[in-house]
Amino acid sequence: MRARPTARGWGLLAAGVVLVQIGLGLGAVDLVRLGLLPVVVVVAAFVVVSLRDPARSRHRLAVTRDVVPNPVHAHEQLHVAVRIRARDRSARTRLSGLRFSEQAAAELSGGQALRARVTRELDTVTVSYGVQAARRGRWPVGPLVVTHGDVFGTVRTTALLGEQAEVAVWPTVVPLPAPNDVLVGEPDRVALGARSPSTDDAALRDYREGDDLRRVHWRSSARRGDLVVRSDERAGMRPVSVLMDLPMRGASLEWTISLAASMALAMLESGHPVRWLGSSTTRAAATISAPGLSFVHARSDSARARLLDETIDLQAAGSAFEAEEQLLGATHLLENTDAGGEIVLAVLGPLGARGQQALAHVADTAQGWAMVRTDGTSPQAAREAEATIRALRRAGWRACGVTPGEDVMRCWLRLLGSAR
Q: How far apart are CA 125 and CA 374, in angstroms?
């Protein structure tokens, strides 16, 4: 809490001090008393206002904050409602004399003052306003700033009320067409089984990385000593790993994550188990980059949210060397897990010899699809991107070039129509 005199309070203090000095100089006791009066008023107001701190006294106010929706996609609107409730009669009296203002991160407010609507009821005040999420990340709103003063307007105090809330912002995503007819063709059906339910739904097979644990047949697994799963329509959906080689530039970084997230959701919604590879985060680096990362299953809002949650804290590597090491670590993970029949969707920058060689080995056991970025302005970068595309195609990947900022749908359709 910060209590300070207002302009009126400073004026009264100055006038009182001048009168006291004049009274002492002239020996006029009445003038000294008259000068002490405004000083006493300001000091008394300071004490009273300090004791009536709405955040700390036993008559403090209760604050709740609702943010809808949360999480939200970048560039979408969200609504915040802050409710301040008086718990007793004393707090209700105090509530009527308070002024409220709200705080929010610049990524939500655009660096502008928030324009809120205040609604007052008998024992509740509601402060509501709308903001727009500018970019992906986790951004704070609150706490509430409360201002109140004395009845004479000589002292004003400012206090923080309530807790700070956090808004999680997902990347922008674009609905992409389901690629089942391209990525799971007739040869895959022969190898993996038809996607329609089998006549014997109890048919079992060995557990493979990417299988939904809800399909484990626990009784048979206990009898055999190894995990087995029921072989039905889910057994024919190949697991998908989305591999990201993140650029260091902000605009290209967000575009890459948006593209990768759109592809991941398209695969998830068409029935494939999906996981992320080759990324680092500030909060969840140990989770997202760790070997044995579990796949996200099921076509549901919770599965979609879980997949998008893992993109919120993504950040680019600190150097080109670190980015290459992350990429090599991801390919090593693919090589050391049962990736046979897996689909790898990659969004990459131009690769060096080590990166090209590592991804070439991935195509030995998995079906690889890659988009290779080029900034479109540097001839050297364009040549390196083209060389990467040729190397991937020679290794058996389906690859195409993309430019950051390009329409995501066009990139996806180009990938689906690209040649090996």
A: 53
